[in-house]
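Below is how a single chain appears once it has passed through the pipeline. First comes the sequence as given, then the structure the pipeline wrote out for it. We keep one example in the README because the format questions we get most often are answered faster by looking than by reading.
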Amino acid sequence: MSDILPLDVIGRRVEVNGEYATVRFCGAVPPVAGLWLGVEWDNPERGKHDGSHEGTMYFKCRHPTGGSFVRPNIVNFGEDFLTALKKRYVLTDGPDDDEKSCSLKVGSKQVQTIGFEHITKKQSQLRSLQDISLWKCAVSCAGERGRIAEACPNIRVVDLSKNLLSTWDEVILIAEQLKDLEALDLSENKLQFPSDSPTLTRTFSTLKTLVLNKTGITWTEVLHCAPSWPVLQELYLKSNGISISERPVNALQNLRLLDLSSNPSIDESQLCLIAYLPRLEHLLLSDIGLSSIHFPDAEIGCKTSMFPALTYLIVNDNQISEWSFINELDKLQSLQALSCARNPLTKGDKAEEIIIAKIGQLKTLNRCQILPEERRGAELDYRKAFGKEWRKAGGHPDPDRNRPSAEFLSAHPRYQLLCCKYGAPEDEELKTQQPFMLKNQLLTLKIKCSNQPEQQILEKQLPDSMTIQKVKGLLSRLLKVPVSELLLSYESSKVRCKQRHKAKLRSPQYCEPFITRSKWRQPLPSQLTCHWRVT
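Resulting structure:
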Protein backbone atom coordinates (compact mmCIF):
# COMPACT_ATOMS: atom_id res chain seq x y z
CA MET A 1 0.00 0.00 0.00
CA SER A 2 1.35 3.45 -0.87
CA ASP A 3 0.19 7.05 -1.04
CA ILE A 4 2.38 7.57 -4.15
CA LEU A 5 0.51 6.79 -7.36
CA PRO A 6 2.23 5.28 -10.43
CA LEU A 7 2.38 7.60 -13.43
CA ASP A 8 0.47 5.15 -15.65
CA VAL A 9 -2.24 4.40 -13.12
CA ILE A 10 -5.12 4.05 -15.62
CA GLY A 11 -5.30 0.43 -16.78
CA ARG A 12 -3.12 -0.83 -13.93
CA ARG A 13 -4.04 -4.06 -12.22
CA VAL A 14 -4.50 -3.70 -8.46
CA GLU A 15 -5.44 -5.74 -5.40
CA VAL A 16 -7.69 -4.42 -2.63
CA ASN A 17 -8.32 -6.54 0.45
CA GLY A 18 -7.79 -9.76 -1.48
CA GLU A 19 -9.96 -8.75 -4.46
CA TYR A 20 -8.52 -8.01 -7.93
CA ALA A 21 -9.50 -5.08 -10.12
CA THR A 22 -8.42 -2.79 -12.97
CA VAL A 23 -8.09 0.98 -12.48
CA ARG A 24 -10.44 2.83 -14.86
CA PHE A 25 -10.46 6.34 -13.34
CA CYS A 26 -8.29 8.61 -11.21
CA GLY A 27 -9.45 12.00 -9.92
CA ALA A 28 -11.94 13.88 -7.81
CA VAL A 29 -15.51 12.73 -7.24
CA PRO A 30 -17.54 15.66 -5.90
CA PRO A 31 -18.89 16.44 -3.43
CA VAL A 32 -16.46 14.24 -1.45
CA ALA A 33 -13.00 15.83 -1.22
CA GLY A 34 -9.77 14.08 -2.06
CA LEU A 35 -8.42 11.74 -4.70
CA TRP A 36 -10.33 8.64 -5.74
CA LEU A 37 -9.60 5.65 -7.93
CA GLY A 38 -12.44 4.16 -9.94
CA VAL A 39 -11.91 0.40 -10.26
CA GLU A 40 -13.66 -2.37 -12.19
CA TRP A 41 -13.64 -5.56 -10.15
CA ASP A 42 -12.87 -8.99 -11.59
CA ASN A 43 -15.72 -10.21 -9.41
CA PRO A 44 -18.71 -7.99 -10.36
CA GLU A 45 -20.52 -8.91 -7.15
CA ARG A 46 -17.85 -6.99 -5.23
CA GLY A 47 -18.86 -3.62 -6.73
CA LYS A 48 -21.74 -1.23 -6.19
CA HIS A 49 -22.34 0.61 -9.48
CA ASP A 50 -21.45 0.83 -13.18
CA GLY A 51 -18.89 3.63 -12.85
CA SER A 52 -21.32 6.51 -12.32
CA HIS A 53 -22.01 8.66 -9.26
CA GLU A 54 -24.98 10.98 -8.76
CA GLY A 55 -25.77 11.02 -12.45
CA THR A 56 -22.19 11.54 -13.69
CA MET A 57 -20.44 8.72 -15.57
CA TYR A 58 -16.77 8.57 -14.54
CA PHE A 59 -15.89 5.25 -16.17
CA LYS A 60 -17.61 2.27 -17.77
CA CYS A 61 -17.99 -1.29 -16.51
CA ARG A 62 -19.06 -4.42 -18.34
CA HIS A 63 -21.34 -5.29 -15.42
CA PRO A 64 -23.88 -2.92 -13.80
CA THR A 65 -22.41 -3.62 -10.34
CA GLY A 66 -18.80 -4.08 -11.38
CA GLY A 67 -17.44 -0.69 -10.24
CA SER A 68 -16.37 1.06 -7.05
CA PHE A 69 -14.51 4.18 -5.92
CA VAL A 70 -11.63 3.51 -3.52
CA ARG A 71 -8.95 5.60 -1.85
CA PRO A 72 -5.41 5.12 -3.24
CA ASN A 73 -3.92 4.37 0.17
CA ILE A 74 -5.77 1.03 0.43
CA VAL A 75 -4.73 -0.15 -3.04
CA ASN A 76 -1.86 -2.59 -3.65
CA PHE A 77 -0.15 -1.77 -6.97
CA GLY A 78 2.23 -4.71 -6.63
CA GLU A 79 6.00 -5.02 -6.86
CA ASP A 80 8.67 -5.97 -9.36
CA PHE A 81 9.61 -9.54 -10.32
CA LEU A 82 12.91 -9.74 -8.46
CA THR A 83 11.53 -8.30 -5.21
CA ALA A 84 8.76 -10.90 -5.20
CA LEU A 85 11.23 -13.66 -6.08
CA LYS A 86 13.52 -12.81 -3.17
CA LYS A 87 10.61 -12.76 -0.74
CA ARG A 88 9.52 -16.21 -1.91
CA TYR A 89 12.87 -18.00 -2.35
CA VAL A 90 15.72 -16.22 -0.50
CA LEU A 91 16.47 -17.37 3.04
CA THR A 92 15.12 -14.96 5.62
CA ASP A 93 17.64 -13.10 7.74
CA GLY A 94 18.39 -14.76 11.04
CA PRO A 95 19.04 -12.94 14.33
CA ASP A 96 22.79 -13.54 14.10
CA ASP A 97 23.30 -12.64 10.43
CA ASP A 98 24.76 -9.21 11.20
CA GLU A 99 27.35 -10.78 13.48
CA LYS A 100 28.64 -13.23 10.88
CA SER A 101 31.94 -12.22 9.34
CA CYS A 102 34.71 -13.58 7.17
CA SER A 103 38.15 -12.49 5.91
CA LEU A 104 38.59 -11.31 2.35
CA LYS A 105 41.90 -10.39 0.72
CA VAL A 106 41.71 -7.19 -1.34
CA GLY A 107 45.01 -6.51 -3.06
CA SER A 108 47.72 -6.94 -0.40
CA LYS A 109 45.40 -6.24 2.52
CA GLN A 110 43.22 -8.60 4.56
CA VAL A 111 39.74 -7.14 5.10
CA GLN A 112 37.19 -8.34 7.64
CA THR A 113 33.65 -8.40 6.17
CA ILE A 114 30.39 -8.45 8.09
CA GLY A 115 27.55 -10.59 6.69
CA PHE A 116 29.50 -11.40 3.50
CA GLU A 117 28.99 -15.17 3.85
CA HIS A 118 25.22 -14.74 4.18
CA ILE A 119 24.98 -12.48 1.11
CA THR A 120 27.00 -14.97 -0.95
CA LYS A 121 24.68 -17.76 0.15
CA LYS A 122 21.62 -15.76 -0.93
CA GLN A 123 23.09 -14.96 -4.33
CA SER A 124 24.06 -18.58 -4.88
CA GLN A 125 20.55 -19.67 -4.00
CA LEU A 126 18.99 -17.33 -6.57
CA ARG A 127 21.40 -18.32 -9.32
CA SER A 128 20.60 -22.01 -8.86
CA LEU A 129 16.84 -21.55 -9.34
CA GLN A 130 15.39 -23.20 -12.46
CA ASP A 131 11.71 -23.80 -11.68
CA ILE A 132 9.88 -21.03 -9.78
CA SER A 133 6.33 -20.23 -8.75
CA LEU A 134 5.28 -16.67 -7.94
CA TRP A 135 1.58 -17.47 -7.85
CA LYS A 136 -0.38 -14.68 -6.21
CA CYS A 137 2.72 -12.67 -5.30
CA ALA A 138 1.45 -9.29 -6.61
CA VAL A 139 4.07 -9.10 -9.38
CA SER A 140 3.24 -6.06 -11.51
CA CYS A 141 6.39 -5.27 -13.50
CA ALA A 142 9.87 -6.41 -14.53
CA GLY A 143 11.73 -3.80 -12.50
CA GLU A 144 15.10 -2.37 -13.39
CA ARG A 145 16.47 -3.70 -16.67
CA GLY A 146 19.09 -6.42 -16.39
CA ARG A 147 18.62 -7.18 -12.69
CA ILE A 148 16.67 -10.41 -13.29
CA ALA A 149 19.29 -11.76 -15.71
CA GLU A 150 22.06 -10.89 -13.26
CA ALA A 151 20.40 -12.41 -10.19
CA CYS A 152 18.79 -15.59 -11.56
CA PRO A 153 19.96 -16.41 -15.10
CA ASN A 154 19.13 -20.13 -15.03
CA ILE A 155 15.34 -20.00 -14.66
CA ARG A 156 13.52 -22.25 -17.14
CA VAL A 157 9.97 -22.59 -15.75
CA VAL A 158 7.98 -19.62 -14.38
CA ASP A 159 4.51 -19.57 -12.82
CA LEU A 160 3.25 -15.97 -12.74
CA SER A 161 -0.43 -16.80 -12.47
CA LYS A 162 -2.82 -14.63 -10.43
CA ASN A 163 -0.58 -11.55 -10.33
CA LEU A 164 -0.95 -7.87 -11.23
CA LEU A 165 0.66 -7.78 -14.69
CA SER A 166 -1.24 -5.39 -16.94
CA THR A 167 0.37 -5.59 -20.39
CA TRP A 168 2.10 -8.08 -22.68
CA ASP A 169 4.97 -5.59 -23.03
CA GLU A 170 5.73 -6.02 -19.32
CA VAL A 171 5.81 -9.80 -19.82
CA ILE A 172 8.35 -9.31 -22.62
CA LEU A 173 10.57 -7.22 -20.31
CA ILE A 174 10.66 -10.13 -17.87
CA ALA A 175 11.08 -12.90 -20.45
CA GLU A 176 13.89 -11.21 -22.39
CA GLN A 177 16.09 -11.58 -19.29
CA LEU A 178 15.43 -15.34 -19.06
CA LYS A 179 17.34 -16.72 -22.04
CA ASP A 180 16.48 -20.38 -21.27
CA LEU A 181 12.78 -19.88 -20.54
CA GLU A 182 10.83 -23.01 -21.57
CA ALA A 183 7.47 -22.73 -19.74
CA LEU A 184 5.48 -19.66 -18.69
CA ASP A 185 2.13 -19.53 -16.88
CA LEU A 186 0.33 -16.15 -16.97
CA SER A 187 -3.16 -17.35 -16.03
CA GLU A 188 -5.55 -14.85 -14.42
CA ASN A 189 -3.52 -11.78 -15.35
CA LYS A 190 -5.89 -9.46 -17.24
CA LEU A 191 -3.37 -8.49 -19.90
CA GLN A 192 -3.53 -5.92 -22.66
CA PHE A 193 -2.14 -7.56 -25.78
CA PRO A 194 -0.79 -5.76 -28.86
CA SER A 195 -3.42 -5.22 -31.54
CA ASP A 196 -0.80 -5.42 -34.30
CA SER A 197 1.86 -8.03 -34.87
CA PRO A 198 4.69 -7.40 -32.40
CA THR A 199 8.23 -6.91 -33.61
CA LEU A 200 9.88 -10.32 -33.98
CA THR A 201 12.53 -10.85 -31.34
CA ARG A 202 14.35 -13.80 -29.77
CA THR A 203 12.60 -13.14 -26.43
CA PHE A 204 10.60 -16.38 -26.58
CA SER A 205 12.95 -18.37 -28.80
CA THR A 206 13.09 -21.31 -26.33
CA LEU A 207 9.50 -21.18 -25.04
CA LYS A 208 7.70 -24.52 -25.41
CA THR A 209 4.73 -24.16 -23.01
CA LEU A 210 2.55 -21.05 -22.59
CA VAL A 211 -0.50 -20.86 -20.32
CA LEU A 212 -2.86 -17.94 -20.96
CA ASN A 213 -6.01 -19.13 -19.17
CA LYS A 214 -8.36 -16.31 -18.09
CA THR A 215 -6.18 -13.54 -19.49
CA GLY A 216 -8.79 -12.05 -21.82
CA ILE A 217 -6.77 -12.77 -24.95
CA THR A 218 -8.60 -13.03 -28.29
CA TRP A 219 -7.82 -15.37 -31.17
CA THR A 220 -6.65 -12.44 -33.30
CA GLU A 221 -4.21 -11.43 -30.56
CA VAL A 222 -2.98 -15.03 -30.33
CA LEU A 223 -2.13 -15.03 -34.03
CA HIS A 224 -0.47 -11.60 -33.79
CA CYS A 225 1.83 -12.80 -31.01
CA ALA A 226 2.37 -16.36 -32.29
CA PRO A 227 5.26 -15.55 -34.69
CA SER A 228 7.29 -14.67 -31.58
CA TRP A 229 6.78 -18.24 -30.27
CA PRO A 230 8.68 -20.21 -32.95
CA VAL A 231 9.09 -23.49 -31.01
CA LEU A 232 5.90 -23.40 -28.93
CA GLN A 233 4.45 -26.90 -28.38
CA GLU A 234 1.72 -26.40 -25.76
CA LEU A 235 -0.76 -23.50 -25.64
CA TYR A 236 -3.50 -23.20 -23.00
CA LEU A 237 -6.31 -20.71 -23.74
CA LYS A 238 -9.01 -21.82 -21.30
CA SER A 239 -11.86 -19.44 -20.30
CA ASN A 240 -11.08 -16.47 -22.53
CA GLY A 241 -14.35 -16.16 -24.46
CA ILE A 242 -12.35 -17.00 -27.59
CA SER A 243 -13.96 -17.30 -31.00
CA ILE A 244 -11.69 -18.73 -33.72
CA SER A 245 -11.90 -16.17 -36.49
CA GLU A 246 -9.14 -17.13 -38.90
CA ARG A 247 -6.85 -19.96 -39.89
CA PRO A 248 -3.33 -19.95 -38.36
CA VAL A 249 -1.19 -19.59 -41.46
CA ASN A 250 2.57 -19.70 -40.78
CA ALA A 251 1.85 -19.69 -37.05
CA LEU A 252 1.58 -22.36 -34.34
CA GLN A 253 2.94 -24.93 -36.78
CA ASN A 254 4.90 -26.76 -34.05
CA LEU A 255 1.95 -26.89 -31.67
CA ARG A 256 1.30 -30.34 -30.16
CA LEU A 257 -1.28 -29.44 -27.51
CA LEU A 258 -4.05 -26.82 -27.67
CA ASP A 259 -6.51 -26.22 -24.82
CA LEU A 260 -9.65 -24.32 -25.85
CA SER A 261 -11.83 -25.51 -22.97
CA SER A 262 -14.55 -23.29 -21.47
CA ASN A 263 -14.77 -21.01 -24.52
CA PRO A 264 -18.49 -21.34 -25.31
CA SER A 265 -18.34 -19.38 -28.57
CA ILE A 266 -16.40 -22.14 -30.35
CA ASP A 267 -18.41 -24.43 -32.67
CA GLU A 268 -17.63 -27.13 -35.22
CA SER A 269 -17.23 -24.66 -38.10
CA GLN A 270 -14.51 -22.83 -36.17
CA LEU A 271 -12.70 -26.09 -35.43
CA CYS A 272 -12.25 -26.55 -39.17
CA LEU A 273 -9.98 -23.46 -39.13
CA ILE A 274 -7.43 -25.24 -36.92
CA ALA A 275 -7.91 -28.67 -38.49
CA TYR A 276 -4.70 -28.54 -40.53
CA LEU A 277 -2.18 -27.78 -37.79
CA PRO A 278 0.31 -30.48 -38.85
CA ARG A 279 1.64 -31.56 -35.43
CA LEU A 280 -1.41 -31.08 -33.20
CA GLU A 281 -1.70 -34.26 -31.10
CA HIS A 282 -3.77 -33.19 -28.06
CA LEU A 283 -6.94 -31.08 -28.39
CA LEU A 284 -8.91 -30.08 -25.28
CA LEU A 285 -12.49 -28.97 -25.97
CA SER A 286 -14.24 -29.51 -22.64
CA ASP A 287 -17.20 -27.33 -21.71
CA ILE A 288 -17.61 -25.36 -24.93
CA GLY A 289 -21.21 -26.39 -25.64
CA LEU A 290 -20.17 -28.64 -28.53
CA SER A 291 -22.95 -30.86 -29.88
CA SER A 292 -21.79 -31.91 -33.34
CA ILE A 293 -18.72 -32.34 -35.50
CA HIS A 294 -18.33 -33.14 -39.18
CA PHE A 295 -15.45 -33.86 -41.52
CA PRO A 296 -16.89 -33.08 -44.95
CA ASP A 297 -13.88 -34.33 -46.92
CA ALA A 298 -14.39 -37.98 -45.91
CA GLU A 299 -17.28 -40.29 -46.79
CA ILE A 300 -18.58 -43.19 -44.68
CA GLY A 301 -15.79 -45.63 -43.87
CA CYS A 302 -13.04 -43.28 -45.09
CA LYS A 303 -10.42 -41.27 -43.22
CA THR A 304 -10.31 -37.48 -43.14
CA SER A 305 -7.27 -35.36 -43.92
CA MET A 306 -8.27 -32.98 -41.10
CA PHE A 307 -6.41 -33.13 -37.77
CA PRO A 308 -3.83 -35.53 -39.28
CA ALA A 309 -1.77 -35.98 -36.09
CA LEU A 310 -4.55 -35.82 -33.48
CA THR A 311 -4.19 -38.75 -31.06
CA TYR A 312 -5.94 -37.48 -27.91
CA LEU A 313 -9.27 -35.63 -27.88
CA ILE A 314 -11.09 -34.36 -24.76
CA VAL A 315 -14.75 -33.31 -25.13
CA ASN A 316 -16.00 -33.63 -21.55
CA ASP A 317 -18.97 -31.60 -20.26
CA ASN A 318 -20.49 -30.78 -23.66
CA GLN A 319 -23.91 -31.29 -25.28
CA ILE A 320 -23.11 -34.37 -27.35
CA SER A 321 -26.30 -36.40 -27.71
CA GLU A 322 -26.11 -38.01 -31.18
CA TRP A 323 -24.12 -41.10 -32.19
CA SER A 324 -23.23 -39.36 -35.45
CA PHE A 325 -20.63 -37.40 -33.42
CA ILE A 326 -18.84 -40.66 -32.50
CA ASN A 327 -19.17 -41.95 -36.08
CA GLU A 328 -17.30 -38.88 -37.31
CA LEU A 329 -14.46 -39.43 -34.83
CA ASP A 330 -13.76 -42.81 -36.44
CA LYS A 331 -12.70 -40.84 -39.54
CA LEU A 332 -9.69 -39.35 -37.73
CA GLN A 333 -6.46 -40.94 -38.91
CA SER A 334 -4.53 -41.04 -35.64
CA LEU A 335 -7.10 -40.88 -32.81
CA GLN A 336 -6.17 -43.31 -30.03
CA ALA A 337 -7.52 -41.70 -26.84
CA LEU A 338 -10.89 -40.09 -26.19
CA SER A 339 -12.42 -38.55 -23.07
CA CYS A 340 -16.12 -37.68 -23.39
CA ALA A 341 -17.49 -37.86 -19.84
CA ARG A 342 -20.62 -36.02 -18.68
CA ASN A 343 -22.34 -35.72 -22.05
CA PRO A 344 -26.02 -36.66 -22.63
CA LEU A 345 -24.85 -39.45 -24.94
CA THR A 346 -22.71 -41.13 -22.29
CA LYS A 347 -25.38 -41.54 -19.62
CA GLY A 348 -26.54 -44.95 -20.87
CA ASP A 349 -25.24 -48.20 -19.39
CA LYS A 350 -23.83 -49.46 -22.71
CA ALA A 351 -22.51 -46.11 -23.95
CA GLU A 352 -18.82 -46.90 -23.48
CA GLU A 353 -19.14 -50.30 -25.19
CA ILE A 354 -20.81 -48.68 -28.20
CA ILE A 355 -18.11 -45.99 -28.42
CA ILE A 356 -15.42 -48.69 -28.39
CA ALA A 357 -17.23 -50.59 -31.16
CA LYS A 358 -17.73 -47.45 -33.27
CA ILE A 359 -14.12 -46.16 -33.11
CA GLY A 360 -11.91 -48.97 -34.33
CA GLN A 361 -8.45 -47.58 -33.50
CA LEU A 362 -9.32 -46.31 -30.00
CA LYS A 363 -6.94 -47.57 -27.28
CA THR A 364 -8.03 -45.42 -24.31
CA LEU A 365 -11.51 -44.24 -23.34
CA ASN A 366 -12.11 -41.83 -20.45
CA ARG A 367 -8.54 -42.44 -19.24
CA CYS A 368 -9.00 -46.22 -19.07
CA GLN A 369 -7.06 -48.56 -21.33
CA ILE A 370 -9.17 -50.68 -23.69
CA LEU A 371 -7.96 -54.27 -23.39
CA PRO A 372 -8.14 -56.57 -26.44
CA GLU A 373 -10.79 -58.80 -24.85
CA GLU A 374 -12.85 -55.73 -23.94
CA ARG A 375 -12.78 -54.51 -27.54
CA ARG A 376 -13.72 -57.96 -28.85
CA GLY A 377 -16.64 -58.18 -26.43
CA ALA A 378 -17.87 -54.67 -27.25
CA GLU A 379 -17.74 -55.29 -30.99
CA LEU A 380 -19.53 -58.63 -30.76
CA ASP A 381 -22.24 -57.18 -28.52
CA TYR A 382 -22.67 -54.24 -30.90
CA ARG A 383 -22.90 -56.59 -33.87
CA LYS A 384 -25.58 -58.63 -32.10
CA ALA A 385 -27.52 -55.63 -30.72
CA PHE A 386 -28.08 -54.12 -34.17
CA GLY A 387 -28.34 -57.40 -36.08
CA LYS A 388 -32.12 -57.25 -36.51
CA GLU A 389 -31.91 -53.66 -37.73
CA TRP A 390 -29.21 -54.71 -40.18
CA ARG A 391 -31.34 -57.56 -41.52
CA LYS A 392 -34.36 -55.29 -41.84
CA ALA A 393 -32.29 -52.71 -43.74
CA GLY A 394 -31.20 -55.30 -46.33
CA GLY A 395 -28.28 -56.99 -44.65
CA HIS A 396 -27.81 -60.72 -45.28
CA PRO A 397 -25.24 -63.41 -44.31
CA ASP A 398 -24.88 -64.27 -48.02
CA PRO A 399 -22.42 -61.72 -49.46
CA ASP A 400 -24.21 -61.78 -52.81
CA ARG A 401 -27.48 -60.75 -51.14
CA ASN A 402 -25.99 -58.38 -48.56
CA ARG A 403 -27.15 -54.88 -49.49
CA PRO A 404 -27.87 -52.79 -46.37
CA SER A 405 -29.41 -49.38 -46.98
CA ALA A 406 -27.37 -46.18 -47.09
CA GLU A 407 -29.33 -44.95 -44.07
CA PHE A 408 -28.21 -47.96 -42.01
CA LEU A 409 -24.58 -47.61 -43.12
CA SER A 410 -24.64 -43.92 -42.21
CA ALA A 411 -25.84 -44.76 -38.68
CA HIS A 412 -23.51 -47.76 -38.31
CA PRO A 413 -20.41 -47.17 -40.49
CA ARG A 414 -18.38 -50.04 -38.98
CA TYR A 415 -21.12 -52.69 -38.97
CA GLN A 416 -20.13 -54.26 -42.28
CA LEU A 417 -16.50 -54.39 -41.16
CA LEU A 418 -17.53 -56.16 -37.93
CA CYS A 419 -19.51 -58.71 -39.92
CA CYS A 420 -16.40 -59.42 -41.98
CA LYS A 421 -14.32 -59.68 -38.82
CA TYR A 422 -16.61 -61.97 -36.80
CA GLY A 423 -19.10 -63.25 -39.34
CA ALA A 424 -22.69 -62.14 -39.88
CA PRO A 425 -25.01 -62.59 -36.86
CA GLU A 426 -26.93 -65.87 -36.99
CA ASP A 427 -30.64 -66.36 -36.40
CA GLU A 428 -29.92 -67.95 -33.01
CA GLU A 429 -28.18 -64.79 -31.84
CA LEU A 430 -30.98 -62.51 -32.93
CA LYS A 431 -33.73 -64.27 -31.02
CA THR A 432 -35.52 -62.07 -28.50
CA GLN A 433 -34.31 -62.79 -25.00
CA GLN A 434 -36.94 -64.53 -22.88
CA PRO A 435 -38.03 -63.20 -19.47
CA PHE A 436 -35.93 -64.34 -16.53
CA MET A 437 -37.67 -67.56 -15.51
CA LEU A 438 -36.10 -70.90 -14.61
CA LYS A 439 -37.40 -72.59 -17.76
CA ASN A 440 -35.88 -69.84 -19.88
CA GLN A 441 -32.49 -70.29 -18.24
CA LEU A 442 -32.22 -73.99 -19.20
CA LEU A 443 -30.05 -75.06 -22.08
CA THR A 444 -30.97 -78.14 -24.08
CA LEU A 445 -27.79 -80.04 -24.93
CA LYS A 446 -27.57 -82.88 -27.42
CA ILE A 447 -24.99 -85.38 -26.18
CA LYS A 448 -23.32 -87.92 -28.43
CA CYS A 449 -20.36 -90.24 -28.07
CA SER A 450 -17.98 -90.02 -31.01
CA ASN A 451 -16.28 -93.37 -30.36
CA GLN A 452 -19.62 -95.21 -30.09
CA PRO A 453 -21.59 -94.27 -33.23
CA GLU A 454 -24.32 -96.72 -32.32
CA GLN A 455 -24.93 -94.90 -29.02
CA GLN A 456 -28.24 -93.02 -29.15
CA ILE A 457 -27.98 -89.23 -28.91
CA LEU A 458 -29.05 -88.06 -25.48
CA GLU A 459 -30.81 -84.76 -24.72
CA LYS A 460 -30.50 -83.05 -21.37
CA GLN A 461 -31.72 -79.70 -20.07
CA LEU A 462 -29.05 -78.06 -17.93
CA PRO A 463 -29.08 -74.73 -16.07
CA ASP A 464 -26.85 -72.08 -17.58
CA SER A 465 -24.89 -71.90 -14.32
CA MET A 466 -23.68 -75.49 -14.72
CA THR A 467 -19.88 -75.72 -14.62
CA ILE A 468 -17.74 -77.91 -16.85
CA GLN A 469 -16.75 -79.95 -13.82
CA LYS A 470 -20.40 -80.71 -13.01
CA VAL A 471 -21.18 -81.57 -16.64
CA LYS A 472 -18.37 -84.12 -16.60
CA GLY A 473 -19.67 -85.58 -13.33
CA LEU A 474 -23.17 -85.94 -14.84
CA LEU A 475 -21.84 -87.65 -17.96
CA SER A 476 -19.68 -89.95 -15.87
CA ARG A 477 -22.78 -91.26 -14.14
CA LEU A 478 -24.82 -91.52 -17.35
CA LEU A 479 -22.12 -93.26 -19.37
CA LYS A 480 -20.53 -95.14 -16.47
CA VAL A 481 -17.10 -93.85 -17.41
CA PRO A 482 -14.56 -92.48 -14.87
CA VAL A 483 -14.33 -88.69 -14.87
CA SER A 484 -10.57 -88.85 -15.36
CA GLU A 485 -11.04 -90.57 -18.72
CA LEU A 486 -13.59 -88.13 -20.13
CA LEU A 487 -12.61 -85.64 -22.80
CA LEU A 488 -15.25 -83.09 -23.71
CA SER A 489 -15.61 -80.84 -26.72
CA TYR A 490 -18.50 -78.92 -28.18
CA GLU A 491 -19.67 -78.28 -31.69
CA SER A 492 -21.31 -75.09 -32.88
CA SER A 493 -22.85 -74.25 -36.22
CA LYS A 494 -21.00 -70.95 -35.91
CA VAL A 495 -17.56 -72.16 -34.87
CA ARG A 496 -16.50 -75.34 -36.62
CA CYS A 497 -13.31 -75.82 -34.71
CA LYS A 498 -13.63 -77.73 -31.47
CA GLN A 499 -12.84 -76.29 -28.08
CA ARG A 500 -11.36 -79.15 -26.08
CA HIS A 501 -11.44 -79.30 -22.29
CA LYS A 502 -8.97 -81.93 -21.14
CA ALA A 503 -8.63 -83.53 -17.74
CA LYS A 504 -7.01 -80.38 -16.30
CA LEU A 505 -10.43 -78.71 -16.47
CA ARG A 506 -11.12 -80.27 -13.11
CA SER A 507 -8.92 -77.65 -11.48
CA PRO A 508 -10.90 -74.74 -9.94
CA GLN A 509 -9.60 -72.09 -12.30
CA TYR A 510 -11.15 -73.94 -15.24
CA CYS A 511 -14.52 -74.71 -13.60
CA GLU A 512 -16.33 -71.93 -15.40
CA PRO A 513 -20.03 -71.96 -16.25
CA PHE A 514 -20.18 -74.12 -19.35
CA ILE A 515 -22.29 -71.74 -21.40
CA THR A 516 -20.79 -68.50 -20.19
CA ARG A 517 -19.60 -66.30 -23.07
CA SER A 518 -17.26 -64.15 -21.05
CA LYS A 519 -14.34 -66.05 -22.56
CA TRP A 520 -15.43 -66.85 -26.13
CA ARG A 521 -18.51 -64.62 -26.57
CA GLN A 522 -20.03 -66.77 -29.28
CA PRO A 523 -23.40 -68.54 -29.82
CA LEU A 524 -24.13 -71.10 -27.15
CA PRO A 525 -22.97 -74.64 -28.04
CA SER A 526 -25.91 -76.69 -29.17
CA GLN A 527 -24.17 -80.08 -29.32
CA LEU A 528 -21.81 -81.71 -26.86
CA THR A 529 -19.43 -84.44 -27.93
CA CYS A 530 -18.07 -86.89 -25.33
CA HIS A 531 -14.85 -88.93 -25.65
CA TRP A 532 -13.03 -91.15 -23.26
CA ARG A 533 -9.58 -92.62 -23.17
CA VAL A 534 -8.85 -96.23 -24.10
CA THR A 535 -6.67 -97.62 -21.32
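The radius of gyration is 36 Å.

See the next section for the split statistics.
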